[in-house]
Amino acid sequence: MAIAIALVVLVLGSVLFHIFTPWWLPPLASNWKTMDDTLFITVVITGLFFVVISLFVAYTLWRFRHREGSRAAYEPDNHRLERRLIVITSVGIAALLAPGLWVYADYVSPPSEAMTLEVLGQQWRWRFRFPGPDGQLGGSDARFVSGANPFGLDPSDTRGADDILVDDNEVRLPLNRPVNVVLRSHDVLHDFYVPHFRSRMNIVPGQVSSFWFTPTKAGRYEALCAQLCGVGHPDMRGFVRVEEGAAFDTWLAAQPTFAGLRAAAAAPAAASADPATVGRTLAQSKGCTACHSVDGAPSVGPTWKGLFGKQENLEGGGTVHVDEAFLRTFIRNPQSRDIKGFPNVMPAVPVTDAELDALVAYIQALR
Amino acid sequence: MSIAGTLPLNDRPAPAAIGLWVFIGVASALFGLFLAAYAMRMDQAPDWTRLALPWQLWLSTALLVAGSVLLSQAASGSSRSTLIGAGVCAVAFVISQFWAWQALADARVSFTGNPAASFFYLLTAMHGLHVAGGLIAWARVLRRPARERVALLARYWHFLLALWLVLFAALGWLTPQIVAFICGRGWA
Amino acid sequence: MSYADDHHHEHDDHAPKSWFYRYVWSQDHKVIAVQYASIAILVGLIGLVLSNLMRLQIGYPGQFEFINAERYYQYVTMHGMIMVIYLLTALFLGGFGNYLIPLMIGARDMVFPYMNMLSVWVYFLSVLILLASFFIPGGPTGGGWTLYPPAVILPGTPGHDGGIILMLVSLVVFIVATTMGGLNYVTTVLQARCRGMTLMRMPLSVWGIFVATILALLAFPALFVSGVMMLLDETAGTSFFMPALVSMGQVTDYKGGSPLLFQHLFWFFGHPEVYIVALPAFGLVSDLISVHARKAIFGYRTMVWAIVIIGGLSFVVWAHHMFVAGMNPWFGFFFATSTLIIAVPTAIKVYNWALTLWRGDIHMTVPMLFALAFLMTFVLGGLTGLFLGNVSVDIPLSGTYFVVAHFHMVMGVAPLLVVFGAIYHWYPKIFGRMLNDTIGMWHFWITFLGTYVIYFPMHYLGVLGMPRRYHHYTDYQFIPPSAHVLNELITIAALIVGAAQLLFVFNLVWSLKHGRVANSNPWRAASLEWFTPHSPPHHGNWGATLPTVHRWAYAYSVPGAKEDFIAQNAPAADGGQEPSQDHEPRQVPA
Predict the structure, then answer these.
(1) pTM for this one?
(2) Out of 3.40.50.300, 2.60.40.420, 1.10.10.60, 3.40.30.10, which CATH number does the structure's domain A115-261 have?
(3) Contact yes or no for B9 and C6 at CB 8 A
(4) d(C-alpha C159, C-alpha C76), whole Å
(5) What is the 3-state secondary structure (H, E, C) of C68-91?
(6) Which chains touch C (3 or more CB pairs under 8 A)?
(7) Cβ of residue C302 closer than 8 Å to a chain A Cβ
(8) Domain residue limits, chain B
(9) Which end of chain A is more exposed for a tag (fewer CB within 10 A), N or C?
């Protein structure tokens, strides 16, 4: 009888677990309540089937367990019963599918008044772009990607000149305005997922994908990468800050445009630019900060804070003193050493001697 | 099918015949999927350039047809030399394929540059491997010829010919326009 | 009238004599079956260890320094691939298929015994190639068992320059082995059934494996196609799946390829693959339930049709794995509908298993316990599939632990419970001894309750939004500390369940010499495999004369019969014929 009891206990336990679980949907911060409602309907219908079938089986096991002299009935089929069960099941399935498809029809049709946000996924960080006053995003392609143009924007496309570039892992959105999120990647698959918003989509290099939602609650929400993209996948944490429209507009106005950044890059370097300052700009533009933090936060590569002068452990034993000579050799040839605790994936990004000076100076300044 | 369970064993079709049909089914699934991938890739590429197929492929086709004809004759009981002739045609087919590859290489059509070329080499290589497998079977039948075994060999040869015709047509004449039409996007 | 044999089949006196040809280079389907099963179980234990290593990292993040991100993703990938392909597929088709099909249909062996023998050695070779990737520089691939490009062949993913090549080569070799085996199973079922054994008299075990084999023959080519094309992208620089991209700051030469093309091909294989695992489990569990409840499987014809329909539909649901992949959004409507439709024949099977038990005479043997545990865990796992198949509900759940919990429950736990039950059931046939019941009971309870504790709560972590394939969750504020505590508890349960499998392995080996000697039909089953002249069966299975059957395999508790079962090959006059469609007594040609 233990098995019948076990089934009943498991069913009851599961129902109680469901009722009292502290782990459920994070508080909804978008318009997609219909998704949560459909989830609820699914829980109810499937839960009902689960409980009924399991308890029926438990009862059957108890009632028809083998005893001395017992014999099974001979009942090889019952077409009427089977037909009825097929009908009931089909009704249950339809009851699940109908709301699901109805919500989906909404999901694939972004409202025409939605604003546009582009999310650029890259191993292993996020960048964001808004269309400027012309309401259109400029063209982009992997072949334009460089240290100075990490978004890969087409310089000859005039629509892109006024695009607003957010070269950061955090983006802001205005409250209660629908937004069509357009997704791109120049390298591998990613997925921009904010659980509080429910909606999301994979990012596929070579094409553009999208999803839409309306943020309905102010707050700062964590964004995850939800499609395995290499060893830095768990480190691709982004943020979406939802705030009142006025505050958002102020913030947006303060962000650089593509044309603005190109002008700044073309301008001769300021006379008093000390190497560390130049190094800081280079660290951004060459993509170093994709894997190295400057504030001590763990990332794909070692943090630069306190790096200079450190005794760094090597894979397979031994240590190395991180001094200027080491940094100069290592940046030029990252595969020369295997640092313990970090994947050996640093690319050899081309740097001129002057750039190398600047970078080393910057790292030294962060001790 | 349910009758087979009650037929005496001697009256049923030989297992080898069924086995061959199943294998033909598997190979058809394989090439069907390759062709689906080919069509999808054609659809994706913004600038698909069709390959000009080298004339050697017509020779290949003729050799396969000859092989099939000879094997049909061998299956209906003609001499051993017919059977050998069919094998020679198949070997010549494989050589003509390499010749075609050489012609493309001479025209600087590389494996990696152009997806149409990648698929050309891949699909012809796959088909060629199946022909090579057929040649192994042919060698075994040659050692111990029997009416049924030659008949099965002939069936496989006809399959390889039919497959080749489909591949040849796809590689030579399938266009992004046709694919778009099949995918329900109208005729551009 | 004795039934004359086809001269191709071998008799006992043609059995090989030397140890090498009997047990190693053997063409006997029974030996090949045990070879398949042994290799599969051994490689499955490796997969189990890998899963425990993964759980150590998730439960105790950072405390096992050697499980860094690279190694973690390598374990994730190898665990998944080993379990799905090298354990479950090989075990159900190569192990159970090889052993049971000829015996259950009254054949002497598979119709192509030499090719059958080659298939297990080619399978073994594929396993060696796969495991070799642990020993090459860079180690195995770490792109997830789904091996999605572009990442899997680019820097940033472990094994991108070596491990992935071995993985793909191993898969291609495996597909060759499966095709060789599959040709055998299908042709044998179609051609080598004994007299009286119509298709609709075959046990459901055979139907499940037969349809699964057809699925395998048609679906594995898709994996072959995608594997070969990816191998070329990796080694030759073609752009089948690789768009123009920038990898680690370097612009690459790829252009124009489509990552989604890989996904469509992979899942065109991948979805039928789960039914290649599930359908044999469905068939086997039907037989376990009917034998141990002494009752004919309820609705046999419906069960057969359900297997066939599920098999057919399994080819048109694949893109439910791609609802958030970025494919054409309109596909979502179609695939959600087809996916939910496939739930109907599956539910019918569940009802019929329950109705078989109803008014049965249920013996709580170890095989029956495993069959019952299958029923409950499969219902749970199948129902959570409805969440994921319903496209808009899938959107927030995709890529989270909800998916991990679902597929482990429905593909890992449920079919594996059937594997255990089936081995406890047929072991006496294969080896002439019973497996130890006490060890069996311990193994059962720890495994059933333990896996429930592991995977049921895991669904809720997924609803919370906890993503899968994460090496660590440090700093993610939306995940409460209690979730990390739950992960620790799940890890402890996983370690216990993992250790308990050693009980099973011990039982298998110990009982070979010390198990209670079994008679030829210890469970008093009706199906044909229990009625060979010798038990365990000798080479050629049936002695001088092939059997003739006069009824289906489910003549249990027939009213008026002396015993509560009638052997499938007992004389026709003993009764117990299958229910006929036209309510006329079935005539069998003399």
Answers:
(1) 0.93
(2) 2.60.40.420
(3) yes
(4) 13
(5) CHHHHHHHHHHHHHHHHHHHHHHH
(6) A, B
(7) yes
(8) 54-174
(9) N
Determine contact: C360 vs chain A, CB below 8 A.
yes
Partners of B15 on chain C (C-beta within 8 Å) are 111-112, 187-188, 191-192
Closest CA to C179 of C221, C145, C207: C221
Dig out the tokens for B63 from the structure. Answer: 């050799």
- pLDDT tens string C476-496: 999 999 999 999 999 999 999
A208: left (phi over 0), alpha (psi -120 to 50) or beta: beta
Give me the domains of chain C, ranges plus CATH numbers.
Answer: 24-243+259-572 (1.20.210.10)
Contacts of B175 (CB under 8 A, 6+ apart): B42, B50
Q: Hey, which residues does A170 pair with through a beta bridge?
A: A239
Residues with Cβ within 8 Å of A215's Cβ and at least 6 positions away in sequence, in order, are A29, A30, A173, A174, A175, A176, A177, A179, A197, A240, A242
H helix runs in C236-326, sequence order: 259-292, 300-313
Nearest 5°: the CA angle C152, A165, A209 is 45
Q: How far is CA B60 from the centre of its chain?
A: 11
Q: Looking up tokens 């089949």, which residue turns up?
A: C9
Structure tokens at C469: 């394939």
Between CA C360 and CA C295 the distance in angstroms is 6
C294: its two tokens = 């002494």
How many CA within 13 A on the CB side of residue A331? 24
Spatial separation of the C-alpha atoms in residues B58 and B165, rounded to whole Å: 10
Backbone φ and ψ for A58, nearest 5 degrees, come out as -60, -45
What letter does residue C447 receive in the DSSP assignment?
H
Helix (H) or strand (E) holding C406, with range, is: helix C401-407
Beta carbons of C197 and B5 less than 8 Å apart: yes
| Domain-wise residue ranges, chain A | 2-64+80-107, 115-261, 269-365
C559 CB within 8 Å of a chain A CB: yes
**Which CATH architecture describes the domain B54-174?**
Up-down Bundle (1.20)
Whether chain A has a CB inside 8 Å of the CB on C300: the answer is yes
Note down pLDDT in tens along chain A; length 367 residues.
Answer: 899 999 999 999 999 999 999 999 999 999 999 999 999 999 999 999 999 999 999 999 999 999 998 999 999 999 999 999 999 999 999 999 999 999 999 999 999 999 999 999 998 889 999 998 999 999 999 888 887 788 999 999 999 999 999 988 999 999 999 999 999 999 999 999 999 999 999 999 999 999 999 999 999 999 999 999 999 999 899 999 999 999 999 999 999 999 888 887 666 555 456 778 788 877 876 768 767 878 777 667 888 988 998 888 887 778 889 888 998 888 888 877 888 878 777 877 777 888 888 889 889 888 7
C chain contacts of residue B23, beta-carbon cutoff 8 Å:
179, 183
Closest partner CB to B18 (pick from C191, C226, C256): C191
Amino acid B154 reads A
Residue in the block written with tokens 């043609």? C14
Q: Name the residue of chain C whose CA is nearest to A89's CA.
A: C344
pLDDT digits (tens, 9 = 90+) for B108-139: 888 887 889 999 999 999 999 999 999 999 99
User: Is the Cβ of C239 closer than 8 Å to some Cβ of chain A?
Assistant: no
DSSP C92: I
Q: How far is CA B180 from CA A301, B51, B187, in A?
A: 46, 19, 7
Q: Which amino acid is at A283?
A: A
Q: Peptide bond preceding A62: is omega within 30 degrees of 0, i.e. cis?
A: no
In terms of CA atoms, which chain C residue is nearest residue B39? Answer: C261
Contact state of C69 with A231 under an 8 Å Cβ cutoff: yes
CATH fold, domain A269-365, is Cytochrome Bc1 Complex; Chain D, domain 2 (1.10.760)
Question: Which of these, C186, C185, C145, lies nearest to C411 by C-alpha position?
Answer: C145
